[in-house]
Amino acid sequence: MTDDNLEIEPKHKRRFRMEHGGTWGSIYGMAFIGSVIYFLQHATSFGNGVWGIVKAIFWPAVLLYKALELLKM
Q1: What would the pLDDT profile of 35-53 be if each residue is shown by its tens digit?
Q2: Is the pLDDT at 3 greater than 60, yes or no?
């Protein structure tokens, strides 16, 4: 007695499911690039430039924190 549903596809025929950030990933990417450009243009030293890159990475978290703080949630 064999069960046809238990057949395993060969490796070269397997399909991989890839999930991406979609629209939100591209929006975050464009905002990140824009904020890096903004912070680097206003940097007066190398240290300020590095700090600007760090701020560009974490600004969405700070923005969300401030919004929730304003809404008292």
Answers
A1: 999 999 999 999 999 999 9
A2: no
| Secondary structure class of 9 (helix, strand, coil) | coil
Per-residue exposure over 27-63, b if at least 16 CB sit within 10 Å of its own CB, e if not: eeeeeeeebbeebeeeeeeeeeeeebeeebeeeeeee
Kindly give, in sequence order, each residue whose CB lies less than 8 Å from that of residue 36, ignoring residues fewer than 6 positions away. 52, 53, 56
Instruction: Report phi then psi at 25, rounded to 5.
Output: -65, -40
Average pLDDT, the chain: 80
